[in-house]
Amino acid sequence: MMGKEIEIHVQWKESLKIPVKVSSLITPIELAEISKPDNIYYTSPKFLYNGRLLNHSLSLEAQRISNNSTVIIYERGFFPTMFDDIDVPYIQTTTFVEKIYSIILEVHRIKDQRYSSVESHRRSYGFQLIKNIDDYEEQIEQEPTVIPKKAENVSTAPLPVSNSEAENDLEEEEEGNEEESGIFFENFEEAGKFFTKHPWSEWSW
Q: Acidic residues bias: where (predicted)?
């Protein structure tokens, strides 16, 4: 990958600015090697861009250095400068592959959390259903059983309450959960934006 060609104005200490055409993917160290007239410079030079120290190992593009920018280079050890004792700030970067992998992990985490919630609800409902049946059987055992010899009239006593309505409610709730969890994305960037907007997601781009 060559990167796009940009023109950088390099200034060594008090010298004039030197225009150099380079690839946007080179590092500040490579920029120093290209722009130094005699190709000799002292160890650990400091690179300054818009009042900000640059990282030696990151490319110019990664540090937002665009076309016609000016980079000032201080040779450490040549003259005492205010930058000699300043460390370059660490810039944390994340590769695109790592971002994709983290999105996949977040999808599985949310899916596992959803299924755990459904299974917990099922166990709670099943326990309550068994308890209701046990209570009903105990109530039947306490009441005397009377079998008439001959039925004179049609019985009007209500039938035992069925749990079919409660089961239907549970099925509808599970279907609703599946619809909520059935989220589809056209690409990884769309998934990342979706997770960032929702507080229940721990993922960040």
A: 166-181
